[in-house]
Design a protein that fits this description.
There is one protein chain. This protein has 570 residues and is α/β, with parallel strands linked by helices. Helices cover 25% and strands 17% of the residues. The protein contains 15 helices and 22 strands. Strand 8, helix 7 and strand 9 form a beta-alpha-beta unit. Helix 5 packs parallel to helix 6 and helix 8 packs antiparallel against helix 9. The structure holds alpha-D-glucopyranose (GLC) and calcium ion. Pfam families: Alpha-amylase (PF00128), SupH-like_C (PF22157). This is Alpha-amylase.
């Protein structure tokens, strides 16, 4: 691995951890987490092994979308702390080798944002073009709304001027007109502020919606609209401030469309994107106990420029969206992991966390995370995944998975000294309550999920080919098994995962896949054996590059390719 390249490409092998300030740790007893609480748990995150913390919104908000409806981009919600608390958090994180990236919502603001309050005043207000207005009656957009339980159109009539404004999300989240150079200027300025305060990048919210204004009559848009130009502009701006800044985009689109959000040949738009397609394929594969949907997805995953990366995840703070599966496939996942209508959301997803979906079966839970960490890209955990937290379905909508972090066994999960009923959200009771699931018990238990997760994180960090490499799915005849090779130069590892509950033996071969592009004097030495990275042990090759791997039901192995005369540490 060319280490010289890694300095400003830290994100190639990062381990991301998403957390919300409000649900992590409360230090002043008001029942709501705060920046000081987050700072005091940086050592915990360092101990777990994560290298980059993604903070969900902590800006002043009108509280209509858990902070994604921002009223001021330039500061911190006073309930969370102040700017100095934010800077302390970033500094402490840095001192422990953890970078901080922050959620950045540039598609919309709250309708309480001063820009929108101005914009809606009159058609010639200086802020009018900060948002997307139309005077003519909008077409029927009911099929395109993101939150069909409360919205039935992307356009809202504003009485005062008799015109309609665009809102892809709630009507209290008017879409910014990012085509307007003044808006772009404002966005750059905001990014400049947070970069100066020490962040290493942004998780860019809802990227495709920046593009989703195709039905706006051109004459009603004052500016020529090229959203790719906006992304390029922002990336370049960030790069000029700091060469190692990332833009991590939330882009849930088919693979064939995803590539363009990374930009041109040199990847000059988003640095990273979440792999929503791979994630949905994993869930379908888990539901079927059949690895082929995932093998198919990986085969179709576009290869990326070295300056880009996928972020792999199984769950996040929203519903588990299954919108890219067919109706029949989605139904299969619903039947397997969320049969109760109360577990489902908007006909497209499940408002659950992973362990209850997998019936609390430790074998399946570990299999799923092993798979996620072995896929080329950068793994991303949602807080609480490391201890196997469950959802609280008593909480409406997507917030069911955003309950307070469970640090200890008491009724507030050690999250706050406030009364349990005064917490920002109620902690789940029963098998996923803090008495059973908490950090304190698991951190000292060598057999806990926490310990397993910290081992996975360490192994991922010891296997740079996963972050840097390309993937090839290996052929064999066991439908329940995914066997994939990741290689980068002379680093390579094979991961083998059995999604079925029956033990299997798989015959694999490197013939025609390993070292494909590495010939001539630079070619690495022949393979000596495969070394087990997670469970130890070794696998020998036959004379022709073939080898057999035995797996239990839901079993998995990570196998490093060790070459003759290899002096790398195992
Ligand atoms: C993104 C966020 C989601 C939020 C929406 C609107 O999809 O992940 O939580 O509601 O954007 O900002
Ligand atoms: Ca607090």
């Amino acid at each position: 691995m060319r280490l010289t390249k890694t300095a400003d490409q830290w994100w190639k092998t990062a381990v991301l951890y998403c957390a919300s300030v409000q649900t992590f740790l409360d230090t002043n007893g008001d029942g709501r987490g705060d920046l000081e609480g987050m700072t005091s748990r940086i050592d915990y995150l360092a101990d777990l092994g994560i290298t980059c913390l993604w903070l969900m919104p902590f800006y002043p908000t009108a509280d209509a979308d858990d902070g994604y409806d921002i009223t001021d981009f330039l500061t911190v919600d006073p309930r969370d702390g102040d700017l100095a608390d934010f800077v302390s958090l970033v500094q402490v994180a840095r001192s422990r080798g953890i970078r901080v990236i922050i959620d950045f919502v540039m598609n919309h603001t709250s309708d309480q944002h001063p820009w929108f309050k101005e914009s809606r005043k009159s058609v010639d207000n200086p802020y009018r073009n900060y948002y997307v207005w139309r005077s003519s009656t909008p077409p029927d957009t009911s099929a395109a709304v993101v939150f069909p339980d409360v919205e039935d159109s992307l356009w809202e009539l504003d009485e005062r001027t008799g015109e309609y404004y665009l809102h892809n999300f709630y009507k209290t989240q008017p879409d910014l007109n990012v085509a307007n150079p003044e808006v772009r200027e404002q966005i750059s300025k905001v990014m400049g502020l947070w970069l100066q305060l020490g962040v290493s990048g942004f998780r860019v919210d809802a990227v495709p919606f920046l593009f989703a204004v195709d039905d706006v009559p051109a004459k009603e848009r004052e500016f020529q609209y090229d959203p790719h130009d906006t992304l390029r502009h922002l990336k370049a701006y960030c790069g000029r401030r700091d060469s190692d800044v990332i833009l991590l985009g939330e882009v849930n689109v088919p693979y064939k469309d995803q590539k363009k959000f990374f930009g041109g040949a040199d990847g000059d738009e988003l640095t990273m994107q979440f792999d929503f397609i791979g994630m949905q394929a994993i869930w379908l594969a888990l539901a079927r106990g059949d690895a082929r949907p995932l093998a198919k997805a990986l085969a179709g995953r576009p290869a990326l420029d070295e300056s880009n990366q996928y972020a792999n995840f199984l769950r996040n703070h929203d519903e588990l969206t299954l919108d890219k599966l067919t109706d029949a496939e989605r139904q299969e996942v619903f039947d397997a992991f969320g049969p109760d209508p109360d577990m489902q959301l908007y006909d497209r997803g499940l408002r659950r966390r992973l362990p209850p979906m997998l019936g609390g079966d430790p074998r399946r839970i570990r299999l799923a995370y092993s798979l996620m960490f072995s896929l080329p890209g950068t793994p991303c955990l949602f807080y609480g995944e490391e201890i196997g937290m469950g959802e609280n379905l008593d909480i409406p909508g997507r917030y069911s998975v955003r309950t307070p972090m469970q640090w200890g066994p008491n009724a507030t999960g050690g999250f706050s000294t406030a009364k349990p009923r005064s917490l920002v959200r109620p902690i789940p009771e029963g098998p996923y309550g803090p008495a059973r699931i908490n950090v304190s018990d698991q951190r000292s238990d060598p057999d806990s999920l926490w310990t397993f997760m910290s081992t996975l994180i360490r192994r991922y960090r010891q296997s740079p080919e996963i972050g840097w490499g390309a993937v090839q799915v290996l052929k064999h005849d066991q439908p329940s098994v995914l066997a994939h090779l990741v290689q980068q130069e002379d680093w390579a590892m094979v991961a083998v995962h059995n999604l079925g509950d029956e033990p299997v033996s798989v015959s694999l071969s490197f013939d025609g896949v390993l070292d494909r592009d590495l010939t001539g004097p630079a070619a690495p030495a022949p393979v000596d054996h495969l070394a087990g990275l997670l469970h130890g042990g070794r696998v020998e090759l036959d004379g022709k590059g073939g080898f057999d791997v035995d797996l239990d039901g839901y079993g998995y192995r990570w196998l490093r390719v060790v070459r003759e005369g290899d002096i790398r540490i195992a």
